[in-house]
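Last lecture ended with a question: if I hand you only a sequence, what can you say about the shape of the protein? Today we answer it with a concrete record. The protein is FixH family protein. Below, first the input exactly as provided, then the predicted structure, then a couple of comments.
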Amino acid sequence: MSSMSAAVSESKPWWQFGHVWLVIAGPVIVIIAGFVTLWLAVSRPDPVITEDYYREGIEINQTLANSEKSRAPALKARNHAATPAEDQPR
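The predicted structure:
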């Protein structure tokens, strides 16, 4: 029994056990990540869209439709890739 009483009287403080820090580290990391996310959200706000965003979108689509660069090669390649192997020209 003397060895048992010696072990109890010589116990270490809680902060000297590695497992305690392992348990504490998880929630602390989550809290720090939350503050970093909050800082990013506050310091870099999303830009506000313009009042005439719909008209600008239509203009962009018209520009793309009338441009010299046709989308025909991309459509042809897409259709060719979707064709089964036995139906492809040789």
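Comments.
1. Helices lie at 2-9, 18-43, 53-66, 72-82.
2. The chain has a mean pLDDT of 79.
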